[in-house]
């Protein structure tokens, strides 16, 4: 079985926290449009340094970014393109994953970093949302929309251009932030289809 291995660079600030967030977010969620974590490793290497890695189901077709922007991809993937029907199916897959995370999982999961490079595409061109390193878990009873004056002491990093503008003002993570990111992703998918 082919697997994808994500080895964390623990020299980067926040990488251990990112590892914990991803493990916590993916521990109890299962959906056909989410990347499956097969296993993880958290140990000490031969030099006595901390080592952390996640093992994922391998996605043969890479990420959505390389499909939308083939000029950035390697030579073997430059000729790939998605027709409108395939783009709509991928958009539906992403929406299905977000609906599950926000409304059907045991706790509300806010992804916080939805962008093309975090959407993986399998052999059948089915989209899978991945990279939950910035994810936030909200209790099901918590209000999952942004309230006036609500702020977070945790700085969300997200990706410029995809993160909701209110995150820059310290507003707490919400499902609305993911919906904003999804809207930006849709605009990009449609705009790139017309190039």
Written description of the protein model:
This protein has a three-stranded antiparallel sheet, covered by helices on one side. 30% of the residues lie in helices and 17% in strands. The longest helix has 21 residues, at 84-104. It has helices at 15-27, 64-68, 84-104, 175-193; strands at 3-7, 37-44, 50-57, 108-110, 119-121, 127-129, 136-138. Strand 2 and strand 3 (50-57) form a beta hairpin. The chain has 195 residues and is an alpha+beta fold. The chain has one domain (3-193): Transferase(Phosphotransferase), domain 1. Helix 3 runs antiparallel to helix 4 (175-193).
Average residue pLDDT: 84
Indicate the low-confidence ranges by residue numbers: 148-153
The CATH topology is: Transferase(Phosphotransferase), domain 1
What's the CATH class, please? Mainly Alpha
Sequence of strands across the biggest β-sheet? 1-3-2
> Whole-Å distance between the termini?
37 Å
CATH superfamily caption? Transferase(Phosphotransferase) domain 1
Kindly provide the radius of gyration, computed on alpha-carbon positions and rounded to a whole number of angstroms.
17 Å
SSE string, helices as H and strands as E: EHEEHHEEEEH
Helix/strand-derived category reads alpha+beta
Number of domains: 1
Strands, total number:
7
Main sheet summary = 3 strands, antiparallel
CATH architecture: Orthogonal Bundle
Tell me the helix content: 25-40%
Shape: globular
Strand-residue proportion: 15-25%
């Amino acid at each position: 079985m082919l697997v994808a291995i994500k080895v964390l660079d623990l020299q980067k600030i926040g990488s251990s926290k990112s590892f914990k967030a991803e493990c916590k977010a993916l521990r109890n969620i299962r959906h056909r449009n989410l990347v499956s974590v097969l296993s993880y490793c958290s140990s000490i290497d031969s030099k006595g340094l901390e080592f952390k890695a996640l093992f994922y189901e391998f996605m043969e077709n890479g990420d959505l970014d390389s499909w939308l922007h083939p000029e950035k991809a390697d030579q073997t993937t430059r000729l790939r393109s998605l027709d409108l029907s395939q783009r709509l199916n991928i958009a539906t897959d992403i929406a299905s994953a977000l609906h599950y995370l926000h409304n059907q999982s045991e706790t509300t999961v806010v992804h916080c970093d939805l962008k093309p490079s975090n959407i993986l595409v399998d052999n059948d061109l089915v989209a899978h949302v991945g990279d939950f390193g910035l994810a936030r878990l909200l209790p099901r009873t918590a209000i999952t929309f942004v309230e006036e004056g609500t702020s977070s002491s945790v700085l969300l990093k997200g990706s410029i251009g995809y993160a909701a503008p209110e995150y820059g003002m310290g507003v707490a993570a919400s499902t609305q932030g993911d919906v904003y990111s999804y809207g930006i992703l849709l605009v990009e998918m449609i705009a790139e289809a017309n190039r």
